[in-house]
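Hey L., structure's done. Input below.
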Amino acid sequence: MMKLRTDRATMEFPLAGLKMLPVIVLCLVTLMHQCLGTDSIDKLLKKHPTWSFEVQSVEAVIKNALHKHKLSGNNFELTETMLREKMRRSLAPGATHIVRKVGDPKWESNPENVPHFFDAREHWKDCASLMNQIEDQGACRTDGPGVVSSLMADRYCIFTNGTFKEKLSQEMLMRCAEACTHDSFQLYSWEYATEEGIPTGGAYGSGKGCMPYRYPACDHKSLYDVYAEGRIGKAKLEECKGQFIFDDDCPTKCTNKNYKTSIDKDRVKFTAFYFLSMDEFYIRNEIMTYGPVSASVGLFSDFLEKPDGIFQSKEDRIGLSDEKLMKIIGWGKENGIKYWLCMHTWDTWGDKVFKMPRGVNYDLIELIVLAGVFEDLDSE
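Output:
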């Protein structure tokens, strides 16, 4: 059953019988698609007749998020402007609704059968070495390409039962989807990875893959010292300051001259990408079934300090940027607090793997969660 939920009512109908529906219902669905500002719902309906989706008004999401934040007691100011900016960076231009995946026959329907602790690296051991690596974004301002390319490689390794263990090119997404000199608009990376696909590409200086990354890892904390009032310790890497960053045209061939496969034959494509429900049970189901997902949080000064256990925000935290993207690779519980197991793109941001509170939309981590699949959709 598919649920199209509006602000006033919920409509349910079986997708398998979509072609047999009256014309008036088909028109209603068509109008709904136009309001979404994206054709992803059309593609998902056609490719995934056994999945279920929920359609939420952007205005309702913003209103509910502000209300819940006020009740939660979180110690940072959340404004409507901040939420609208987060939506703008994640949704198609003009989108008035968000389509969220809320059902999948491959998911576990019984909560008792979902483990209390899960680490994708332990579950898919053949892909663990790949999952452990998420490249530093270097001096570039956007982290979308790093997160999406890493997550995509993880999921493709899982899809191929561990036979594919190559990194996918962050560089390709940086040059063709987003821009090194701009803040992240992750939707562009997801769209490019699905519509065009990205080739292999190793880390800076690795000489591996079709398109290795051009920027070395650096100390991102130095960029924010002025805001953090000198509370951040010395970094181990060179500062990002002084590195010349620029935006190139989208390449049509591999930049690694020693790589023999053509760029088009080397590309890997998501079959589809989608937003997930904010309900942590659905997010856990998705991770357990297909692999890591992407999420984002607001970036504050205390994120530049090494987390001790589960991340807990500090009273004097200072806002630094709109958001920080990461991938979620698992979950657990520690000292009575449920957590997400996360990875990020900054080598100098404490441990590469860290924990964030789970199930309470902490720092908006569950507001915008995305994933993609490589399924042979016609076989569903």
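Residues 1-39, 226-235 have pLDDT under 50 and may be disordered. The first strand starts at residue 2 and ends at 5.

-- N.
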